[in-house]
User: Fold these one by one.
Assistant:
Number 1:
Amino acid sequence: MLQRMKLWGGRFKGEADEGFARFNSSFAFDRRLMEADIEGSLAHAEALAAAGILSEGESNKIARGLREIMRRAREEKGYLDSRDAEDVHSFVEAALVAAIGDAGYKLHTGRSRNDQVATDLRLFLRGEIDTSQELTREAQRALIELAEANSDCVIPGYTHLQRAQPILFAHYLLAYYEMFKRDRERFSQVRARVNRLPLGAGALAGTGFPIDREAVARRLGFDALCENSVDAVSDRDFVIEFIGAAALAMMHLSRLAEDLIIYSTAEFGFIELSDAVSTGSSLMPQKKNPDSLELIRGKAGRVFGHHAALLATMKGLPLAYNKDMQEDKEALFDSIDTLRGSLGMMATVLRNVRVNAERTRIAATENYSTATDLADYLVRRAMEFRKAHDLVGKIVTYAIESGKSLVEIPLDDYRRFSVLFDEDVYSEITVHSSLLGKGASGGTSPARVREALSKARAEIDHG
Ligand code: ARG
């Protein structure tokens, strides 16, 4: 146990209630900010030295002490198992004093835990955002690989979970590629607002020492300063914003998970998940369950919850700092861990999908999936679309009643509905021609999808 002077004991006569000390302590979780805390403190010590508040010798001694703490935290098992630290900041200060003596007490000059914790969080989150972006890119890569390996595969596209129109499986997968791309964009937009320096704001009023905040910002790789000292220590919008971006990414992952779960049922039979990402049942020997995907879907809810929780935590807080804000950390950490785990799992699942292209082809052909193409045929022969829609509706009803598919209806019957029909109608209502017809940009024609897929491949390899 570290011998130390408390961070704030001077005006107190009584001891803290033990239960309160435990309730108040965040060290069990905010020790995760240790590296960021030390990085920030190293920069602060330099700034104090530059301002002539610390001697070179003191500043070097502090830096050595801080590095030593970092090394021990990384290497020494049990080093962080301190039960009595209030938070990561008080732990580091106490450890510093234990390592280098009274010079350690000088480090907190011109600084408050309020600007310190905001700095730590921003430094930490910046790195985590970079990791989230990398993992999102890996999930995109897995989508592309699956699309490339099944580039001819056609599936029924759905609306209302009813078969709608045939689309290429690759086109479907690239829809998620686009969603993940926006997720990455969002992460980098959030990062730009995260990457600002609060240090130098002090408790709330600014610091009374001539600290060169610009130099500290440069030293720590921040793009800019938090301009107002009260704002710098008061807001956690950057945390909420990141969790919001993570929530959207989780929503996308969850929808993809849901699709794949449905597609892997016996009822659909479009895909099979390999044993590597499936589990069995403790009772039913025949079962193979998509737990990996269900967990992704389930975990999305946690991140949505953290987002709502933090908004609620912040909404009534008077400026500036309030201890309520300590609650930001577990929400943020769990959101990060959940997002990371889910992105990684999704990439793995996608690499363990086998597609039953025969089954999807049949499904894409059935249920009058090219009825819209039949209406378009009439439109190209100068019928108004609404009238063509109505007429094809009647043709479909007739086909259902006579147990025929669209290609099985004889031309004479077609012509009874409209004289605009000719022999060439049959070649225009196949799945293949339906796909070919969607050649406008963004559509599912094989040429467009090939183009989109190679663009995506280039983005992911070189972008
Ligand atoms: N552990 C605290 C938090 O996370 C650090 C800041 C404490 N500041 C204070 N004035 N009590 O919010």
Number 2:
Amino acid sequence: MEYLRNVYDLLPPCRVPDTALGLLAEPLAFPAKAAVSFLYGHPSEVPYYGRSPAVYPSPIGNGSTSSRWATAYGHARAIVSQMTVDEKVNITHGWPGACVGNTGQVPRLGVPALCFADGPSGIRGQEFVSAFPAGIHVAATFDRHLMYRYGRALGDEYRGKGINVALGPVAGPLGRMARGGRNWEGLSNDPYLAGAGLGAITRGIQDAGIIATPKHWLLNEQEFRRRWSSMGDAISANVDDRALHELYVFPFMEALREGAAAIMCSYQRANHSYACQNSKLLNGILKTELGFEGFVVSDWDGQMSGVASANAGLDLVMPSAGFWGASLAQAVRNGSVSHGRISDMATRVLAAWYFLHQQTDFPPPAIYPSTHRHAPVDVQDDHASLIEEIGAAGTVLVKNVNGTLPLTKPRFLCVYGYGAPLKAGPWQNPDRYGGGYDVNFGWGTLNGTLVTGGGSGGSSPPYVVSPFQALQERVARDRGILRWDFYSDDPHAEYVNADACLVFINAYASEMFDRTSLEDAFSDRLVANVAAKCQNTIVVVHSAGIRTVDAWIDHPNVTAVVFGGLPGQESGHSLTSVLYGDVSPSGRLPYTVARNEADYGNLLNSTVSADYFPEDTFAEGLFIDYRAFYRDRVAPRFEFGFGLSYTTFGYAGLSAALADSLPPAEFPDAGVPVVQGGHPDLWATVAVVACAVTNTGAERAGSEVAQLYLGVPGSDQEGEEGDTPARQLRGFVRVGPLAPGETRQAVFELTRRDLSVWDVVAQQWRLRRGEYRLWVGASSRDLRLNGTLSILAA
Ligand code: BGC
């Protein structure tokens, strides 16, 4: 069964490489928890009680956010009021069925089983579906419009297959740990960029009539011991209230504001309370502070208790009855769970269904195992062209000397490295392209071109255009020649007539384990060996997250370097459109590439602990990724937001003004009720910043990603330590394409929330009084303009 994904269900332990053992998500098989406790005994959990605040009772959803939600709730209540307790219980847990998750049905009231499917970058395990770029690749476009179109196309495919609920997009993990195994499923470790993406993708999916499920709520920042096992309980992510809000909750707010009708709670513990029974996270932040109207679904087998999870705000358990089913019915009958709560659970599930109008004209599920003969249900549409466009827009050029790129009709190319062609045997499992954790467990690289990562977030491409295929197409068109070696780490590279040598390497990651390194010796040797012989060596790195490059980046023969991300099925076409200059690169790094892995400090690795109650304290607070590099004065190799173009851009004329003539109030208006996404005032535009961006090059059109960074009053400034990072991304616009000489305005609207900090005493977003510092530029360190904005007391 799909959800039995404990690695030990799939691989005998002896096959797991030692290097990976330390970072296994679930170190030993899953005997019943009670049996483990009985056999081995375990330390008392009582000392850990109360570390996460208790918030009860669970808020009853009421549809007050909008007339659309109100209508959905009206329909849902009318049906739920006719249901028996058993019927309510049946629709709040998973059942066996064709989909990754299937709810129960109530035929007498016309309530069908709902179909849930992975994943965030395409429908996994099905035929005639597309493989879109992964989340982290979409983030690298810094383009909200592309993010929306991505979500919409995904949603259309889900709908075409009759899937009610899409299990994505992802902003948890946010990407706190450089080596986190699932960072690539999400967007960026910057919450503003991640939020823009999560919101736009959610809107896109739901505009297609599909329930989006932003996940994993919350703090699922590492794979190692993400779940309980015979070693003990799952890792506890211990985080303070401010970092919780300003980093980890922040991106989900946008998705909620866009109407996300479901949220998936995560496996691990948060402040020592399991996320799917954490009343602070579910009843408190999600359902009270952020007014969530939809339903909370557990991560697969992530439920750890019956009554406790029901009362803490979990609404639906997957993929089976877990601790509910008949036990939940009994708990309702004996008063441990109220009738109001079980009705609320059922109402939320149905309200989401009505919110997306799935009660009318929704196609029946067309989900089949590969062994089932059936007519194709083709949902690909023209998504290949969008995939190619996003693939190119998220490609990041980080080095380009001597005008190496774009290539100008090269006649002779040498292509090296395991990352250029298709993997010889990518389909050991019909659900997985090129190695999920069950195929490729513990490897640092994929022996073939990498277009997606492993695990439930991987995609099932209809075909993959490899870089080698696309290069051959181009070279053949120009009646040129190629030489290649995809095997050796020291290829014969003495073709003195070649125009360039392209070297393809990759860095793999998957659900179920954290990465053991951000580099690997084989690939680094390969690049160095080619560069030693070929004066024009172009390196392409496809990576599921950060890949350090200092082993060879300064080699004089390495003339160009491209971070190709995880581009999906059109990989080769996206890449060649950039290499050949059909598109000028404008992708930007959605993370910091350090010079040395050690530069990430405590944020390099997951916490590896053998304690029965392992914990990971987020002592760095707000200071992750570029925020920490600034504070610690560590020079990165390539900073967050960095990426080169084939042309140059100038910035001029920064303006910054408050939207209103009266100074804004310090807090949102306490008299206005919260709606889904938080207090409505949080989304009001408080200030507008603008500047002109000009393509100052003479030859090529190109797009520029203009970025706005903000220093709030009280932040770190030269010589003065504050309580907030010196600069945080609070705006971006992909301007263009601009013709040579063309100028356009970049306009950044700053909402109340963008300017606020979370006040842990007031338990509210607070606008600090004083001077806000602003920088606009081409990356987090290439800051071209600066200014200030004063927000004074009324
Ligand atoms: C993953 C989820 C996924 C689910 C269903 C879990 O292991 O953490 O992200 O949606 O499985 O496949």
